């Protein structure tokens, strides 16, 4: 380390101690805070501290309010500037459509916590998303030269422009990107990032298991209806599952189900199996093929087998289950209702700092960038909830406005199993299994009153339908001398989280 770096480190440590005193006593504004200057310090000093300050969650904007032409101003406390106010002023259009006009947001910043910090904001309507950053205490302006279309003007008149704060500020946001990118990295670095995220935000525990990390499975001890819970912790699917677990509260990110044919051969039914074209479809494949693919999976999957309870196993209608599985084979994975299964209430299902305002803004962004993706993920599902057909996101918002329905309420309308989408019934991995359980008689007399497309993976594995007596588990189960209530048949780590 250079002499300059050592001197700078001492200065930072000195101001770190003084800074806490000055902030507490409000004597005066400190020149800088440690997290403002860490990026210029040597890598071996700055990164460990930054990792404690910021996480992938810090990338999510915090909704501070909507600035409308009807209110005088909105006020809030920022990450850098503790005093902020904003107001909206309509302006004349610079386009031919003189009836549209534009607007200017006047945003005043004051009371910065240090001389080096800055605040980053996202400004959004369902028709646009833009951003700006501020590092000086004064009035700033953000100009919308013209509204995209009359519907945007009407939306802003009624609801205003949503203002989102990036809570960690500019430098924090940039370094949070460093934290989120590893979630999708197919490396040991990426695996550690996923594990650390799950530990921090979900209270998950990961303990290294002794070898062997895979069980020597006897298919004779596996039965139709037995449930497979899969958790991937590295690579593209590892990162995706980590975020899925965070929003749904599940400690598994994928599922599959076991089936025995008339000759005793073991098969696996799975929604979300990638075919040779890269498409995610529903398949029924031999156990040996599924197990070989799982062992080769670079995402380092952790796999648990949850046998059905013996009483329910005896009631399992294998013929009906097979008929259902073959009827669904080859059909696409259920993207249409994937995000709706975990949104049941207006506010309580969102892990902070997520909220409905952010959800609609993200939907809007993806609709602009990838219209076909948006149509597949939520447009059709939102049309189902309104009883309409073919409306895009903007038209859906107009329709909800006409009906007096808030968008966050629209998101909470339950999915219905009988809904048929443009490519058939929308069936996620867990909906596929629970639909099979319905057909096989596992859910009994309440079957007709259950909408399985509303279930998350957590909802499924917490059902009281699985083996609850450890002494009846197969002898080859890697359950660590009875420490686990299920068979962990593959995995480097034992998840000590009480998720069953």
From TrEMBL:
The keyword Signal applies. This is Inositol-1,4,5-trisphosphate 5-phosphatase. Keywords: Signal. It comes from the Eukaryota. Residues 1-19 form the signal peptide. It comes from Quillaja saponaria (Soap bark tree).
